[in-house]
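[09:14] KT: can someone run the structure on this one? pasting the chain below
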Amino acid sequence: MISVDKSDSDTMNIVDRLLKDQPKFHVHGSTHWDSLPGTLRAIEKAAHEGARTLETGCGASTVVFAAQGAQHTVISPDGDEHKRVRDYLKTIGVDDSRLVSIVGGSDLILPSLCTERVLDLAYIDGAHSFPYPAVDWLYITRALKIGGRIIMDDIPIPSTAYVFRFMLSDPGWRLDAILDDRAAAFTLIREPPSIEDYTLQPFNRRPDYGFAPVPVRALLMLKSEIKRLRRQVGSRYPSLGRAWRRLSHAGDFK
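[09:31] RB: done, structure tokens below
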């Protein structure tokens, strides 16, 4: 699908071409904010002709999705980025007819776009300020097929890191790779649990008392752990659980 010079065509794939050309898509065409090569190659490997794909953020990764023939949607608030990507695709002879470019903020676009599980692959690399990585993740994962893959860039950034830590803890997700020491690739392996019961998520099993001064924090953590152990034992031995509850109501366990 990629038309390049005859001398390049036998040896150069799309990622190699991007690394060679170093096209500038950002800040009026003056800056590289490209995904790193390992991440681009992971997208190249996972995307394929006919796959339904989506990304937040626009740039070199968009070129890779288009070159692989995916039915790709890219969301970015900067219309000039979209134009520069399409201009580059035309320059190297890549068909952009399957590429849908949406100019706007992902937090405004995704809610109406992500209503069915149709995505095979998604890439999150849009706004990195809190809470945008989590907002992108929320809506994109609602549209991801079971067995679909998601790649998230810039996981060292705290606003992205906590989403990564949640996925790492959750049995519904399988970590496939850490890419370039900066991005993570996951596969959605099962339907998420009901949103009503947060205790079903391992991420939420223990409260976070980081807001409290150290001595108070230690006491709160101890009380929480005692309650957790009591619930576990009470669930296993109901009669003992009932006895504890009676003592608690009598004021002995507060």
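[09:33] KT: thanks! The two ends are 69 Å apart (CA to CA).
[09:34] RB: yep, looked fine to me
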